[in-house]
Design brief:
- There is one protein chain.
- The chain contains six helices and two strands.
- The chain has a two-stranded parallel sheet with strand order 1-2.
- Helix 3 packs antiparallel against helix 4.
- The termini are far apart.
């Protein structure tokens, strides 16, 4: 019994030492976070990239809609003349209309698809901005001894943050800008929005590429390690 009690005391003492040591380790580690969406609002290069992406999207969407308009005009003419056409002529006209619509759909996929040209352009234009932010963050982490710097952008899973650990303004200053002096990107919400008017019509289904947040704390950009491919 005496040996058992002694063993219990030893185990209890060791457990307390482990808990105490672990607490000291946790307290010694330094953490911080940034709000990437807020930071990006201050960067002229990001605003310029967003504007260029909008221009590409608007031009491509206009070309797609032009193809669909041509298909719709062919269909209107076909419906008016259908009763006068032979079976072979009807089949030829229907095939022509279908081909025009298919051409528009293919362009839609090529330009606005998951791995389409707009996605590639976004990577090309936004990644240098991400790299700039990432390099400054590495410098801040090194000089301040941060173990981890989290991202509070709206795609993160951070449910609660204490503002005293927010180093967003510090990062903005390191990048050479003044916290609070944000840059507005022209809002083109009309790009990629609208309703289909006929079966097979993809009019208005392009994507609005203006992903810059509309307010000072929020949006959909997020930061990813350069080269990882995520640019929202």
């Amino acid at each position: 019994m005496r040996n058992q009690k002694t063993l219990q005391n030893i185990v209890s003492t060791l457990a307390l030492l482990v808990v105490f040591s672990f607490s000291n380790i946790i307290q010694a580690q330094k953490f911080a976070y940034i709000d990437t969406d807020y930071v990006l609002l201050h960067l002229p290069d990001f605003a310029a990239a967003q504007q260029e992406l909008n221009t590409y999207a608007i031009d491509w969407q206009a070309e797609i809609e032009s193809k669909l308009d041509a298909a719709n005009r062919l269909e209107v003419a076909y419906r008016a003349e259908r009763v006068l056409l032979t079976k072979e002529m009807r089949q030829k006209r229907e095939q022509e209309i279908s081909s025009k619509r298919l051409e528009a759909k293919e362009m839609q996929k090529q330009k606005f698809g998951a791995q389409g040209e707009l996605f590639q352009k976004r990577q090309e234009l936004i990644e240098p901005v991400q790299q700039q932010i990432f390099e400054e963050l590495k410098g801040i982490a090194s000089s301040s001894g941060y173990m981890v710097i989290f991202d509070k952008s709206n795609q993160s899973n951070m449910l609660y943050t204490n503002p005293k650990y927010d180093i967003s303004d510090r990062l903005i200053k390191k990048l050479g800008y003044v916290p609070g002096e944000t840059i507005e990107v022209e809002d083109r919400n009309d790009v990629g929005k609208g309703n289909s008017t006929r079966d097979g019509d993809t009019r208005g289904k392009g994507r609005d590429v203006n992903t810059a947040p509309r307010n000072s704390r929020g949006g959909s950009s997020g930061l990813q390690r350069p080269g990882s491919g995520r640019v929202k």
